[in-house]
Design goal:
CATH topology of the largest domain: Alpha-Beta Plaits
Keywords: Cytoplasm, DNA damage, DNA repair, DNA replication, DNA-binding, DNA-directed DNA polymerase, Magnesium, Metal-binding, Mutator protein, Nucleotidyltransferase, Transferase
CATH class of the largest domain: Alpha Beta
Oligomer: single chain
Distance between the termini: 44 Å
Number of strands: 15
Shape: globular
Subunit structure: Monomer.
Structural class: alpha+beta
CATH superfamily of the largest domain: Reverse transcriptase/Diguanylate cyclase domain
Strand order of the largest sheet: 8-9-4-10-11
Pfam families: IMS (PF00817), IMS_C (PF11799), IMS_HHH_1 (PF21999)
Subcellular location: Cytoplasm
CATH architecture of the largest domain: 2-Layer Sandwich
Protein name: DNA polymerase IV
Largest sheet: 5 strands, mixed
Helix content: 25-40%
Length: 442
């Protein structure tokens, strides 16, 4: 098959069927072998090697896979009435449900939806299965999240006996057959455009953006398609009369940098399809955190402190498992009117101890318990480093060593008898909110 295809590389009329992978010559609309309309043709199809894979409505897809009765039902994966939508299947999306939408609004838009509490342990397990299949294609896999990643398939033709485009199509078929979920793929010459391509024609999409067409394609897109242009910056560009990427393409780099600083340089390069970032397989985490959304708004320290303690223990457990520590403790709060407050404090040394994370977070929280009602609380650490630098003996706070030893004993008991074998007085008997659900991890 590869020999037959290599003779027609970059022939616009030559491609393959995404369902049976048979070569396609000429301009027919259906596969000559299996009759499928899912054909892929592109002038640069066999010259491109940078891919972006994105699982389709990942959490909801896993739930539908595990419960066939949900196949034709609108499914929302999220955290109860006061939580937000983590993922919605495409049926729910047609009805107006979107990720990060408050749950009450999602149920107003789609009252017949089936709401499922997230099962992060299961999603992580499935995500690792997909990741393993990616790494069988190439060692150059850069994860972006549990359900998406960049792949660099350059130089893999000899390994697989096929060009990257065919390898990618075979991969999407294998995921659907072996794991039972679908993915969408984008193929291009750079990461920026590969990610854009993967968003087209979801679910089960396969889109290609070549180098020759990049500038013309981008000219027709809104500025919000550029990575880093969110709502706030888009509003700034709007005030300056800039709505389309074609307008950026007519501006000089110097002018853009005078107006927008380093972001101006990014606008200049990406608007022209210039992205020299490489696929980096060793992409280290920048922070470890946990958060939870409450069933009802909470305002008092009596309600918030037990939750802070439980979240601190979750963050500590993840740090210890990963063999890392963090130097900056970050507190996150979301008010009843959806405004986010973040507070942080840098420690003298990195830590991975729940007690130290909690005590620092408590000091930050005390200043925020002013009667304001909150719907979400989170705690985390950043400035990550290896665990061997964490929590050196404190000559001033002699009790810190005793607390660290006590925490080690608690960890050992929990490892042997389960997470609920030992609780501190902060969380014991404080109800469901003091034990945040598994979907709180980040």
């Amino acid at each position: 098959m590869f020999a037959a295809m290599s003779a027609s590389v970059n022939d616009p009329s030559h491609g393959f069927c995404r369902d049976c992978l048979s070569p396609q010559h000429g301009g027919g609309m259906r596969c000559r072998a299996c009759g499928s309309p899912r054909l892929i043709r592109h002038p640069e199809l066999y010259a491109l090697a940078i891919a972006h894979i994105d699982c389709d409505a990942f959490y909801a897809a896993v739930e539908k896979r595990d419960n066939p009765a949900l196949k034709d039902r609108p499914v929302i994966v999220g955290g109860g009435k006061r939580g937000v939508v983590s993922t919605a299947c495409y049926i729910a999306r047609i009805n107006g449900v979107r990720s990060a939408m408050p749950m009450f609004k999602a149920l107003e838009a789609c009252p017949g939806a089936v709401v499922i509490k997230p099962d992060m342990e299961k999603y992580v397990r499935v995500g690792r299965e997909v990741r393993a299949m990616m790494q069988a294609l190439t060692p150059l896999v850069e994860p972006l999240s549990i359900d998406e990643a960049f792949l660099d398939l350059s130089g893999t033709e000899r390994l697989h006996g096929q060009p990257p485009a065919l390898v990618l199509a075979r991969f999407t078929r294998a995921v659907e057959k072996e794991i039972g979920i679908t993915v969408s793929a984008g193929l291009s010459y750079c990461k920026f455009l590969a990610k854009i391509a993967s968003d087209f024609r979801k679910p089960r999409g396969f889109s290609v953006i070549g180098q020759d067409e990049a500038v013309g394609f981008l000219a027709e897109q809104p500025v919000t398609m550029i990575w880093g242009v969110g709502k706030a910056f888009a509003a700034t560009l709007e005030q300056d009369g800039i709505r389309m990427i074609s307008q950026l393409q007519r501006m000089e780099r110097g002018e853009l940098m005078r107006r927008y600083g380093t972001m101006g340089d990014r606008l200049y390069r990406l608007s022209r399809g210039q992205d020299e970032r490489r696929v980096e397989p060793d992409h280290d985490a920048k922070s470890v955190s946990a958060e939870t959304t409450f069933d009802t708004d909470l305002a008092t320290a009596a309600d918030l402190v037990p939750i802070l303690r439980a979240l601190s223990e979750k963050v500590s457990a993840r740090l210890k498992k990963a063999g890392i520590a963090g130097r900056t403790v970050v507190l996150k709060l979301k008010t009843h009117d959806f405004k986010i407050r973040t507070r942080n404090r840098q420690l003298g040394d990195p830590t991975r101890l729940a007690d130290r994370i909690f005590q620092t977070g408590l000091q930050l929280l005390e200043k925020e318990t002013d009667g304001t009602k909150y719907r979400l609380l989170g705690i985390g650490v950043s400035d990550l480093s290896a665990a061997d630098r964490a929590d050196p003996p404190d000559l001033i706070d002699v009790q810190s060593r005793k607390r660290a030893l006590a925490e080690g004993a608690i960890d050992a008991l929990r490892d042997k008898f389960g997470k609920k074998a030992v609780e501190t007085g902060y969380t014991f008997g404080k109800g469901r909110n003091a034990r945040p659900p598994e979907d709180a991890d980040h």
